[in-house]
Each structure stands twice: as structure tokens, then as C-alpha cells.
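Issue 218. Parser rejects a valid record. Input:
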Amino acid sequence: MRIRAITIGQMIPFLLKNETILSFLEEKLRNFSAFYDEFSEMLNEINIEIDTKRICSQPLFSYDNKLFYEKNLKETLIDINDQLIFLQEVFNDYGINYFACAMMRADQIQELGIFEKLLLNQVPHFIQNTRNFFTSLSVASTEKGINLAALKSGAKIILNLSKPDPFNNLQFCVSANVRPNTPFFPAAYHLSEKPAFSLALEMADEVINVIEKSSSLKDAQLNLLKKFNEIYNTLTKISEKVARNFDLEFKGIDFSPAPYPQVDKSIGTAIEKLGIDYFGANGTLTAIALIKNSIPVDKEKVIGFSGFMQPVLEDFILSKRLSENKFDLDSLILFSTMCGAGLDVVPLPGDITERELFYILLDICTISIILNKPLTCRLMPIPGKKSGDDIKFDFEYFAPSKIIDFRRIKDGSKKDLFNRNEKNLKFL
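Output the parser choked on:
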């Protein structure tokens, strides 16, 4: 196990002059840097490694920030792009690996105006100009329903990000019901005035080890619960101590057992060791539920997704089974009813349409709303590739795989939901 990310949430006064923002952040960043160092030392003493140090802020766009309307739209968008580049450089100077802020909480907006639509159109530009900036678009919540206009914008962003470099979609997701201070990127964001931090865990290997030592499914569940509680107690004790030393609020730990693309760190390996023939076979959903339900839910500091994660390209066995045609997109949508993060780094054909993406996103948002759980979609159309084609990225966190198969749909009529002018959908 290792800490995939320590994510600090910090409010940022967007669109003020860069020197004003730097003055506002400098002392805080020095404090964060010292915090990271002390936390790392304490974790090293118990042989736990930290992979990345991250920061997230409040959503970029807010009606409360009147600076968005002081200049004409074109100038404001240029200023936002320049400021994101500036912030990336500032955070890099303080040893922070990645920065995230949601574009907006579109699930809280009844109707997208001209500025909101133009801002979302610029998301591919923002990402292509930055290496370490991640962002998300919140489009749905159980309370407010689905912002269909924002959902269409999300589909458009995904498609535009795929060209010319499909890897850009690593830095963007569409989200539903994701709460503040969820530590996993790209969905992370922060709302409170006081800075806070949370932990994302990479611990599929711990799940495998527990399952290998268990003699039955009942034993596996009880032993997983015991292991998760041990990890919770250890990390919470250290986190709360360090939080007091640096006047930070400790929000909690996301217990989703994130994988790494090695067979002994694959959540797919854990599923198969539970007695399932292969990841994707009938019975996989039961195994997913077993792991998910072993995560303690009665702990104050268990936050975020805290469920089963299925990031296809980041998981050795999931990537391998996809290459062997053992599951398709419908399988992953079904598993999303039990998992904690939805569809993650899923390789799709390059000729997928905005309309097809819209309906994939719509189904995940519906699951999120009906089950009242956080879900995201980080989808990766690959230009020039079709279902079944081999793919390989030169990236430490991705395993080689194939383009996933999914049910294609024909062009729709004007009565088709994608083509109709409906703005929102709220279930009765």
C-alpha cells in the first residue's frame, strides 16, 4: 500500500492579478510544504510511501466572483488560461505535483448562459496548455437532477480533448454527486475557507493479500474489514496529529483500493482470487459488492468514493481481460452500480460521436442519482482506432490493452433526447 495522493484543498482568488494571488498563497504554500515534509517523514517511519502531493481549489466559475464580468468574454478567457499556467508554475515551485479545480458546479445552475458555454468550450485549450492541471464538470446531483445542457458540453469536451492527443482526457472527467474534498483527481474540489487535506489510497495489493489468506468469502469480508479498520486507525491518528501542527483540517480518507498496472497490484487480480473465473464473467458484480461492502461506513473520516474502482487502463488484469474480450462497456456500466468511481480511463473508438458519449454519460449520471452515490466518467476516445484495436501508452500508470466494444447508435431525429432543447432532467 502507498498513499496515491495527499490532496490539500485551498481557496484561490481567481482573476485577481497574479502578483496578488502569489502574495495571498505564498505563506500558505510554505506551510503546506512543511506539512508535506513532516507527514512524509511520519509515514516513512511505518514504511508507507507517498506517491503525489496535490492541491485543489473551489470551482473556477462562480456567480459570486464579479471579476468574471469586468472585461469582455474573450479577454476574460485569455486571463483564465494565463492564470492556470501561472498557478501551475507556482505550485511546481513548492513541490506540488498536480492541481485541480472543477470548471463549475453545473448541477447547481438551471441554465447555461453565454459565458458558461464559452468557458466550457475552452476546457480543451486550458488542458492542452498545461501539464499538471486537472478539471471536472459536475453535471448532476440527486437533489437537483441532471443538467442536460452541461452534459452535452461534457461530451463535446471529451471529444475535442481526444484530438490530436487522446491522453489529454486523463485530465478531465464529468462528475455526479461528488462531494468536496474527495482526494482523487480529476474530480477533486474544495469549498471551505479553511484549508483542509484528505488522502487517496493505492491499496489493491492489500486487498489481494487479505483474500489470499482467507479460507472463505465470509472470512474474506471479515478480514478485509479488519484490515481497512487497521489502516483507518493508523492513518487517522497520524493525520490528525500533523493537521494540528499546521492548522489544517483533516477531512478524511478515500478507501477506494486504487490499483497500479502490475498483476500483484490489480483489483482485477483480487476479484479473480475470490473465485470468479475471470474479471467480466458472471459473478464479477458479486465480488465487487463483497469488496465494496467491506469498507467501513460508520467512520467519520471515511470520505469520497470509498468503493470499488475500475480504472481500466490503470489496472493490469482489467486491461488484459479487455484485450481478451472478456467484458464490454455495458459490463462496466453494470459494475458502476456497485463501484465507487464509475467509468474511468476507458479507451473508446476514435469515431465515437458526441451523441453516443452523451448517452453513456447520461446512464452513469442516472445511476448516480437513483443510488445517491458519487460517480465520474473519464472517457478516452482514441483517434484512428476502432473497437478491438490494440493500444499502448508510454505512461507509467497505464497498461497495454484494446479499444472497448460498445453498442453503437444511429443518428437521431429531432425528437431524440440529444437533439431536443430540454435543459434539465429531474426524476420524480
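Fixed in the parser; the record now loads. The longest helix spans residues 217-245.
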